[in-house]
Specification:
heterodimer, A: 0% strand, B: 70% helix
Chain lengths: 328, 315
């Protein structure tokens, strides 16, 4: 297909979509009775619900079901030849050394990323608040958010680039090491620290998000609270610790939650930077490898289900926090 | 330049300037050190991109033999890498750029339109089971897209009831449909939830008085809600745009590596794998993929901040 064909196709799809939606809306305008209102509600909601049911609910249940089957199962062609093998896939995840390494890496990612990204975002938000360069300063930190994780990984692969100590360096970090008289270092190849260097990439991307939300929250703290605290002689670090942080607690929770969930699902960084080699794979990437490269659909499904299981408590906690806030 | 003379201080009544929590905290952390720390973070955050940016303008031989910082002592700049990357026969990012556009526009417009409608109904049309349904939609955000992919792919390839397959050899439209549809589905729960929250901030009296005047839901929706919701819709639109434009997983799985429908990210990821050492191409490529989201982000930033604040002020 030529580029023009593609663009025409796109325009047709969008116009068609809006035409159908428009017709539905116009048809329901005529209805004013009680039942009419029900039909209207249905017309407004049904398309979304249908898509969610078909595209999220059904596949989620299906995957959980699949995770109890062996790898002979061929979901794409619909042959259900796989044998039911109960919890074998899960047992494999928790006993196979490579997969245990994946679990351990995922744990390190999910613990470190939210803490580091939120911490840096918070400190930076405080430091630049009401400074003269606030807008520029914010934009600098936020820009990585606009870069794809693939782009970000390429940028950092360049930073981490390795050449032998006797050679001229391309990567800025090894350039610095060499200039300081140290040996150059294989940042992405040396286990176990390479996982940390991959985490730096996601922290680099997510800190801007944390900073934006927390900065908004900080600005919403009422002035009189701060003044009262200052009259009581609370200043500096203490003010930060006892007034700022508690006041923005709800936003902190939202930011920590969002980043944790994002981190659990991230696979682009590992795929682009190391391809999961050198002991750097994580759950989300291993799912992709097992399902679409090794065609171990049963094991892939179990890995996906595991992500699902890990996300659930985080979200449930968040919903409860939200409820508590609303009740107040 | 105009200079404004500060008002003369009234003796004895020096009103302390009001300070925010953080600026007060910052002062306590001794202003100079605080600024220094902020500058250090800002430099650390900017330097990686800057290095790649500089590299994308350096000649191939230079990029491959010495660090980008040498540009300051030996400035040689060229657009060769960009030419090679955009129109070079073996890289040809221009095609993938078009694919990204074709994927992204419907994947932003369609889910947001559907979500605004659903959010309106959840917010302002009373019906039985509304709250339960809304919580269910919110809860489905839990489902990671990885969990949905294989069954969804199977539905596309081999749909029930003899429906037309959306992917595979007989796919209509060359296979963009599956990508559009998947992005739409994955965006809906969060979009409905956020837009519903914005929608609830609009005072109920406004809707009631419109209803008294005889306006139906469709009129209220199109004449009152949509204009009031513009900042929120724009804010979410930017996010959705960035997600879709920057997505790799959905494109890999549902476009299936088919070059005629794959977006830039897929091509870039492949380049990073195959040509890990061709930094001149990778750097130019990364910047081609970066320009569009950057322009969108910078030009619509004000909506983003406004919409975001509108949501967070509550409580």
């Amino acid at each position: 297909m030529s580029s023009t064909d593609k663009l025409v196709q796109m325009v047709i799809a969008v116009v068609l979509f809006f035409a159908v939606m428009g017709v539905i809306l116009i048809l329901t305008t005529k209805l004013r009775s009680r039942t009419g209102e029900k039909v209207q509600a249905a017309a407004f909601i049904a398309p979304s619900l249908l898509l969610i049911a078909i595209g999220l609910l059904y596949p989620a249940l299906r995957t959980i079901y699949q995770s109890f089957f062996g790898s002979a199962y061929e979901p794409l062609v619909g042959s259900e030849g796989g044998t039911f093998n109960g919890l074998d896939n899960y047992r494999q995840i928790f006993t196979n050394d490579d997969l245990l390494q994946v679990l351990q890496n995922t744990a390190v990612w999910v613990v470190l990323t939210p803490l580091l990204a939120t911490g840096i975002g918070l400190v930076y938000a405080v430091l630049i608040d009401r400074s003269r360069f606030e807008k520029v300063a914010k934009a600098l930190i936020f820009l990585p958010m606009a870069i794809s994780l693939v782009g970000a990984s390429i940028i950092w692969k360049f930073v981490y680039d390795y050449k032998g100590s006797d050679q001229s360096q391309l990567g800025v970090l090894n350039g610095l090491l060499k200039a300081a008289g140290f040996d150059t270092y294989r940042f992405l190849l040396t286990e176990p620290w390479n996982t940390l260097f991959l985490i730096v990439i996601i922290v680099w991307v997510q800190a801007g998000f944390a900073m934006t939300i927390l900065s908004a929250a900080i600005k919403a703290i009422p002035d009189d609270i701060i003044e009262a605290a200052r009259l009581d002689g609370v200043n500096g670090l203490k003010l930060f610790r006892y007034i700022t942080v508690p006041s923005i607690r709800p936003s902190l929770i939202v930011v920590l939650t969002t980043i944790s969930i994002t981190t659990l699902k991230v696979f682009d960084i590992v795929r682009t930077a190391t391809g999961g080699q050198f002991g750097t794979s994580v759950l989300a990437y291993e799912f992709y490898v097992q399902s679409f490269r090794s065609f171990n659909f049963g094991l892939g499904a179990a890995l996906a289900t595991l992500i699902f299981v890990l996300v659930t408590p985080i979200v449930v906690y968040n919903i409860r926090q939200m409820r508590r806030l609303e009740a107040r | 330049m105009t200079t404004t003379t500060p008002p003369a201080p009234v003796a004895g009544v020096t009103a302390a300037p009001r300070k925010s929590a953080s600026s007060a905290a910052r002062e306590g952390l001794t202003g100079r050190w605080a600024s220094a720390a902020a500058i250090v973070i800002a430099v650390l955050w900017t330097l990686p991109t800057f290095g790649l940016f500089i590299s994308s303008f350096r000649p191939e031989s230079e990029v491959k033999t010495n660090g980008w910082w040498n540009v300051f002592t030996d400035p040689q700049l060229t657009l060769d890498s960009y030419k090679q990357v955009i129109n070079g026969a073996d890289i040809d990012l221009a095609t993938y750029l078009i694919n990204s556009v074709v994927i992204t526009i419907p994947s932003v417009l369609i889910p947001i339109s559907l979500a605004v409608m659903a959010a309106y109904a959840f917010a302002w049309i009373p019906f039985r089971g509304r709250d339960t349904l809304f919580v269910a939609v919110f809860a489905l955000q839990i489902v990671p897209i990885q969990v949905t992919m294989i069954p969804l792919l199977r539905l596309y390839v081999d749909p029930p009831f003899n429906l037309m397959p959306l992917s595979g050899n007989d796919a209509p439209g060359g296979g963009f449909y599956t990508v559009w549809l998947s992005h739409t589905i994955f965006a809906l729960p969060l979009a409905i939830f956020l837009l519903h929250n914005f929608m609830r901030e609009i005072p109920g009296e406004l809707i009631e008085s419109a209803r008294v005047d005889g306006a139906g839901h469709v009129q209220i929706f199109s004449k009152i809600m949509l204009p009031l919701m513009t900042p929120a819709i724009a804010a979410f639109g930017i996010f959705q745009f960035l997600w879709v434009w920057n997505d790799l997983l959905v494109a890999l799985v549902f476009a299936g590596g088919n070059p005629s429908v794959s977006p830039l990210t897929v091509r870039l990821a492949a380049l990073a794998g195959q040509r890990g050492e061709d930094w001149h191409l990778l750097s130019a490529g990364a910047f081609v993929s970066l320009v569009v989201p950057l322009v969108v982000f910078l030009s619509l930033q004000r909506y983003f901040v406004r919409g975001l604040l509108a949501g967070s002020v509550k409580g």
